[in-house]
Amino acid sequence: MNSLFAFIARQRAFIVFVLLEVLSLWFYFKFNNYPSAIYFHTTNYYVAKGLQLQASITQYLNLGQVNAGLAAENARLNAELTTLKGQQVPTIINYKADSTVAARFQPIVAKVVKNSIVVAQNNYLTLDKGTADGILPGMGVVSPTGVVGIIRGCSEHFSLVTSLLHLDPPMRISSQVKRSGEIGSSRWEGDNTEVVKLFDVSRYKSVKMGDTVVTSQLNSVFPGGIMVGTVKKLGVSSDQTFWDIDLKLATDFRNLSYVYIINNRLQKEQEQLEKTIQAK
Length: 280
What we know:
single chain; six-stranded antiparallel β-barrel; Thrombin, subunit H; six-stranded antiparallel barrel; 35% helix
């Protein structure tokens, strides 16, 4: 305490000067309108800037949670859309899908924790969902923009996905030209991570540049109507029987963060029935 008093005694002139300066500034801004307004607006400006910076930092730190929430909401909306598509009634025949069949595809949100994208190799993804979340080998995986791959193996908390960019064995996706309804098979050839081939479409069927190609209804892994890509190159195959078609992939594999694992709740029942018929 004595040291404090001694310091104040030594610096009393400076302390009195500072107090008088503060008091004079207070009187200046208090009783002069123009300086008072300038001070008010200036302080408000910098306070607002500080609050804006704080809000930006908080928003950035919460981006992961926001993205996860959006992915979950998209999964819910995708499930509803898939159900509605399954219940659509064709105009030619009087048909309506059973509600259980129409709602058989259930998307489960997962985060990509590892992803390989290499030309002329077998590429895989690792997801943060496993058997503890109900994930099983054979389930399809899609992104918000298109097809990604199929679950190859699972641990309790992780899943390994065979990417569409896979060569041995190549992944084949039953596909359909959306405009004309022609069915084919999409497969990666290994030379470009943004392009796949569409095979088995007769050259006598209507296909045009820019046509959209989606998954067909003729599989138990993916719902029909999931984007595969768009026609970017169109020619005739060497045997003159089929189109030679290159598709620009809808999925950007270099920027995958969240994906949807497609759980077909009736997949096992369908595949078991088909195996019994094939065995005969």
